[in-house]
Amino acid sequence: MININNLTYSYYKGYNALDNINTQIGPGIHLLLGENGAGKTTLLHVIAGLLYAKEGLCEIDGNDISKRRPCDMSKVFFMPEDITYPAKSINEFAKIHSQFYPTFNEDTFRKNLEIFHLSGNEPFAALSLGNRKKANLAYVMALGTDVLLLDEPTNGLDINAKKELLKIMVSSLNEQQTVIISTHTVWDLKNLFESVMMLRRGELVLSMSTDEICSKLAFVASTTPNPNALYLEHDMTGFKSIEKNIDNKETEINFALIYSALMSEVAQDVLDALK
Q1: What pLDDT sits at residue 270?
Q2: In whole angstroms, how far apart are CA 234 and each of 227, 231, 257, 268, 271?
Q3: CATH 3.40.50.300 matches 2-201
């Protein structure tokens, strides 16, 4: 369990990259949304113990992660959008690095590499961006950490590799793990997300399960505009809207639509409907 209380982070110029963040994040796979510069990567760094908050606290299982105790750091891993390992191959890196993670599973690592059609011995220097990302993900998904933080994990992956990643995530992750995924390509893993968090200019404006969102909002596609919609978009296929779910409709959450709504002038109306 991640507990974030009154968390504020400022860079050296005094600008609050994160402003009084409060939330609890339990086991499951969670989507982190926000515009460029909203503070998503900064938040992941703070949760991982890589940055220190100016005010407030981030705890993992009741322990202040900023103290960076080895027993706590072994429970969390942050994978940035691109990473350079101090090793020739992912096998070489795993042999050294996995010693710090007692939950690492060698069999899972091997299975993940096989799914990605890699041996693990391929030199990083010879790998394309996509294959380097696959090697990284094969290892990271085998760590078994309580908290796994992924920044744009599907960037660089082709269509088949994204399908393979879904297969790996389903087989590698367990119900006790807390996984936070920051991404703009929400459709790649949309069926896995159990909750949504959204940052806007450093403030956490939404942190709610997808089930709760869908119980209060309906995501509707139609050929004509709904005058009572909280938020409405029009494209070549017709109209997409967010409405109050007064009739208990069963609709599938549209992550891109709710993101756009919360970035628009009607954001407060949508947030009020979620209360």
Answers
A1: 97
A2: 13, 11, 11, 21, 21
A3: yes
